[in-house]
From TrEMBL:
GO molecular function: biotin--[biotin carboxyl-carrier protein] ligase activity
Enzyme Commission number: 6.3.4.15
Protein name as it appears in the record: biotin--[biotin carboxyl-carrier protein] ligase
PROSITE patterns xref list: BPL_LPL_CATALYTIC (PS51733)
SUPFAM superfamilies: C-terminal domain of transcriptional repressors, Class II aaRS and biotin synthetases
Domain BPL/LPL catalytic: 16-203
Taxonomic source organism: Devosia oryziradicis
Catalytic activity, reaction form: biotin + L-lysyl-[protein] + ATP = N(6)-biotinyl-L-lysyl-[protein] + AMP + diphosphate + H(+)
Coiled coil: none
Enzyme class: ligase
Protein's UniProt keywords contain Nucleotide-binding: yes
Length: 275
């Protein structure tokens, strides 16, 4: 048994929950449930993952006491629209953190990712949440086609609550390191309720423009130098915006506007460095 519980909005909206102390992968559990015929609208939440997955097949390390949560949904929208659910998750998590962190810790505004200061929480394209420029949380969408032709989507969210993984190639932090005494259960409660509001705004993809407006308002790095690594190549320029399709728009050095759909993003001094 665990102490995970849905927030009141999530309960009223009919969401369900399976809570775990430790699990292999909440995303894997969600997709297995979909294959077994679950209709969706169910959260899988754990204090620890032993086989968590990150983007591009990377391992997602989840020390005990952190939050690993996955929501299984079977949306009415087409796969292209469903792919924007990562932005719904980012806005939801940002709202959840704003609701539970001490006043003054979350500062909303558009700026670069370096030297954020004051516990500034920001969304990093495409799927990370930063605090003071260090990774606090990550989001991973995985999809599976069902026998009836519909698509099941597992929306995985990992939050460093008590500790950040060690030995990573990028800075990482945790709520505890930021001075916030919160539990995985606290974060999940707030997240499950914030999801209800943001998912309603998304409206089967018809409201993605509104979701992206909220996402941009908390974005890291807009107007700052950015470098995007793609298949061994590095594209450098200025991060202009996220367009209405959720693509990263870069103003390259030769003044071209380039739309990026995938890649590893680096801001600030790392982006400006020339090799």
């Amino acid at each position: 048994m665990t102490d995970f519980a849905l927030g009141p909005k999530a309960r009223a909206a009919g969401y369900r929950l399976r809570g775990y102390d430790s699990i292999g992968s909440t995303n894997a559990e969600a997709l297995a449930a979909a294959t077994a015929g679950d209709p969706g609208g169910i959260w899988f939440a754990a204090r620890q993952q032993t086989a968590g997955r990150g983007r591009r097949g990377r391992q997602w390390i989840n020390p005990h006491g952190n939050l690993a949560a996955t929501l299984l949904i079977i949306p009415e929208s087409d796969p292209t629209s469903a792919a924007t659910l990562g932005f719904v998750a980012g806005v939801s998590l940002n709202r959840a953190l704003s609701a539970i962190l001490p006043d003054g810790m979350v500062k909303i505004g558009i700026d670069g990712a370096d030297g954020l200061g004051g516990g500034r929480i920001a969304l990093k394209w495409p799927n990370d949440v930063l605090a003071d420029g260090a990774k606090l949380a990550g989001i991973l969408l995985e999809a599976s086609k069902l026998p009836n032709g519909r698509q099941a989507v597992a929306i995985g969210i990992g939050v460093n609550v008590v500790a950040a993984p060690e030995g990573l190639p990028y800075p990482a932090t945790s709520l505890a390191a930021l001075g916030a005494s919160r539990t995985a259960e606290d974060v999940f409660d707030a997240l499950s309720d914030a999801w209800v509001d943001t998912f309603g705004m998304w409206n089967d993809g018809r409201g993605i423009g509104d979701v992206l407006t909220h996402w941009r308002a908390s974005a890291a790095g807009i107007g700052a130098p950015v470098a995007v690594q793609q298949d061994g190549d590095v594209l450098r320029g200025i991060f202009e915006t996220i367009d209405d399709d959720g693509r990263l728009i870069i103003r390259a050095d030769d003044n071209r506007r380039i739309a990026i759909t995938a890649g590893d993003v680096h801001f600030g001094a790392t982006a400006s460095a020339r090799s």
